[in-house]
Protein: PAS domain S-box
Organism: Desulfosporosinus meridiei
Amino acid sequence: MMLLKDGTNPRISYLNLGDSIGKAVRIFMELKIAIIPVLNGEGGLLSIFSRSSLYRAILDGATHKDIIDPYLIQEVISISDDIPDDQLANFVKMSQVGSVPVVNREGKVVGLLCKANMVMTLFRHSELLNVQLKAILDSMHNGVIAVDSHGIVTHLNIGASRILGLKADTSLNRPFQQLLPKLDLTPALVNGEVKIGLRYRHRNVTMVVNITPLKIGGNIAGGIVIFQDLTDLEQAARELETVKALNKTFDTVLNIIQDGIIVVDETGKTTLINQAMADFLTLTPQEVIGKHITEIIESSRLHLVASSGILETSEVLTIRGKPLIVSRLPIIKEGEVVGAVGKAVFPQLAEVRELAEKIRLLENKVNFFQEELQKNKTAQEVIKDIVGESTEMKKLKEEITLVASSRSTVLITGESGTGKEGVAHAIHLCSDRCQGPFIKVNCAAIPENLIEAEMFGYVSGAFTGAAKAGKPGRLEIANGGTLFLDEIGDMPMALQSKLLRVLQDREFERLGSTKTIKVNVRILAATNKNLYQGISEGEFRADLYYRLNVINLHLPPLRERTDDIQPLTHFFITKFNKILKLNVSGIADNAMKTLLNYSWPGNIRELENVVERAVNYSRCGLLLLEHLPNHLLNSSPRENPLSAGNIRHQEKIAGIERDMIVRALEKAGGNKTKAAKLLNLSRSRLYDKLDKYDLKY
């Protein structure tokens, strides 16, 4: 009905029986219309007076005063005002009449449809449809080619250009057979046959082709050819089936085991619960999912494990009057804690409870002996265990040995995944504090509202939900040992000032207490951020930075110490052989070359993940190229550091570095300690660079 509205002239006048020819002429002159509806006494359409009626009257010698009645057209063609667009378009094409009255359901004339206006309206709609159709075709992922009845290409969308490697400007108005000679359109264009699901290969791309003839008025006017690239589809289908199978297996296993399982995200909200746990809580899974764990189990500590990343195993609890053996394990993804899993064993017999207690005691003994064994390692053995043969790592090992004997604070810097935590642990094990605890705090993983309680502990009643007996903080637990503050750059500003006091005075108070606690603890910190930039942006305290950066150890990224890639790879192969109980003997030369040529943005952590994946795929024998992930195989080769272009680039960097050192020394008045702090370098590294650039200060 949109077409009718656009093509109808609403300006209309009417005649009645007995009206004069002169009145009709005035209406024709005023409204510029071809016909005038003549109404009966009830206002309904009776007949029409057309221009041809006027011409007949003139030929008969009638004057303007004569009446119109003898010249009226009685066989009136009219259309309804609710006629569908397709019927209206067909009427315009088939009708010989130039204008017709438009009537409503009551038979009243509401306008005149002029064929000329209607043709222009159809033409405008056709242009709009063509633009819309082209936009729709170009937005499709599939390729589409349209041809006329002679097989000449009239349209080629962006998808077809991408899949087939054709360009629209050189393909339009050319025979389809010249472009794709192995695809025959004759059955569709001659016989009107529809071809669905044809397998076709072009430019090493496998695709499915559908060919459909276009018919207008029963005649074949052309055809549409649709191409669907199967490469991505086949890969997605395989991955989807694998995921479906894994999900089905996971759901089956989860719900047939007798233990209760509940999972939370990093904020403590429940994301999964199995049927056994839901039955124990007398709740449906729908009532549990999305709620905070403390809303379901008030005394739960699962959200704390999701925050701290510290597992808690085999704890005997009584929930709803029933004894449970509870374990809480953090979920770690790419080195970050993203949630936690709680497992509850429902022992029904005293013997089962006794067995669980014995197992827990045995695990405690094993952990104790392992810790004692680790503590008894000599400094030389600890350093030897650090994997790395590059010049940078050899120098780092020497620095670890030197700083381990000190009590000074150490700031370990380097990109994510370079092994900063391992260096911190090595410093602890090589120090005279190795018999004491090594306590790690991930400043980015613990929520801001909990980190102060975790660091300093609290007393009973310090805040809502605080344990009645209070709780010691990490600083207190680390007394006599080492406290490692990972991701120190993410520590809230409010806590930074309190940490500064600990660094200065080695004392603090628990939350809710006025009693000062003194500790003997060495603090190591690590970050992948530029703390100096954080100071300028007001995100990190300058005084805390200088307290932390007494000694700086920098871990270069893996791409700058490629000599370590091969020994690290063999170390990880040995590690995962033990964990997965497999027998991978080594790695093929071309696979190792690929590892050496890759840039490793994720550093050692990414290399470890790649080797773990490859070991899983290989199972035995050598790791091959096919066992490596696609992004390594498809990555551009790392630039040869000996190329002339790169040497020029390194010379530019060296020049910039030399100028920075000179400016820092001038700003510090020649004081090398101050200059080293301005450059975020250790004194020993500054001296090395002074020798390197032959600077005399």
